[in-house]
Amino acid sequence: LFAHVEVAAPIEVFALTAKYNEDKFQDKVNLGVGAYRTDEGKPWVLPVVRQAEIQMANDATLNHEYLPVAGLPTYREAAARLLLGEGHKALVENRVEGVQTLGGTGAIRLAAEFLKQFLNKSVVYVSKPTWGNHKGIFKAAGYAKIEEYRYWDDANRCLNLSGMLEDLKGAPENAVVILHTCAHNPTGTDPTQDQWKEIIQVCQDKKIFMLMDCAYQGFASGDLDKDAFPVRYMAEQGIEFFVAQSFSKNFGLYNERIGNLAMITNNPDMKLRVRTQCELIVRKIWSNPSNHGARIVATVLNNQAYYEEWKQQVKTMANRIQLMRQLLYEKLRSLGTPGTWEHIIKQIGMFSFTGLSVRQVEHMINHHHIYLLKEGRINMCALTTKNVEYVANAINDSVKS
Ligand code: PLP
């Protein structure tokens, strides 16, 4: 029955971790998977998350009944407030809706399904390069065309704004574009606020639907408000758009699969229409969402003291990344590694797009037991004060060999 089914190609980032786990070398380093690590190289359960979990475990009023199809209301409201900022006019005007999803991935898939069914979308534009799953999600949702817009200027290691604008101007009117709200994955390079305004204007002129992918709020600058700039600006302009929010990274809730599809519409009537149709889509895919992650996020965001603690803990993560950028840069400079490395300190967020070639990446893996994606992206959080020198030496060797 299954003989014709071919073994699927491995998913690079998971295959890399499996290879890393098998590696017996003592000083091995996994720079592949996008998850935060402490300076001891360990996963971090945020202390405020632990506190919320203890509180939840002791709350006899909670139970395991089904959640509403659209998810936990206190969570969805808190997620929208975090995104847009307390008192934002779109919230006051009651035109923002949220549907709880299975991580940011689920939010993107739900958006893809909704846009195809109700706005007749069949073309999507993703940045070149982008997170490895964007194309696949839209392909799986049946989009006829998955196009790329230029984003990265390889020669100068910066944003290729003119290329991006030109490609967006050339997109058909009915297209969807995915824009990374902050901490672009994999390049760690975001538009400035003025550049955002230009990008948004072009999309508006061309009537391109903007799906904002917001997987790293707080990780780019350490400031949750600043990182949400493009989304808040768009909502102020009265633009209708969607945001795929993820709490995997900024709450460290990777395996709880907690996301939200925030839908910014023009009025309460539109909000009702999109939410109820999304509920019917959800009903057919996962029926209703899981509870634990939503309750953690709602408990923290709806309690002022917890919220303040969480903001500090997001800063702790962002600052540690910044420090690792600085240390890696300084080590490479002191080794005299050929090439320019300023991009490591200029880039922001979880990742650095190193510029290492496929051959150099292979050299890192095969000779130094340091695992990273073929495209040269490294997870800055996987660096520690103990391994940064080892990694810098290996980069130096790979570049020179
Ligand atoms: N979007 C981007 C750009 C990401 O990097 C990721 C995860 O790495 C996601 C979305 C999906 O996040 P989640 O794990 O919450 O599905």
TrEMBL record:
One of its GO terms (molecular function) is pyridoxal phosphate binding. InterPro entries: Aminotransferase_I/II_large, Asp_trans, NHTrfase_class1_PyrdxlP-BS, PyrdxlP-dep_Trfase, PyrdxlP-dep_Trfase_major, PyrdxlP-dep_Trfase_small. Keywords: Aminotransferase, Pyridoxal phosphate, Transferase. GO terms for cellular component: cytosol. In eukaryotes there are cytoplasmic, mitochondrial and chloroplastic isozymes. Homodimer. This is Aspartate aminotransferase. It comes from Lottia gigantea.
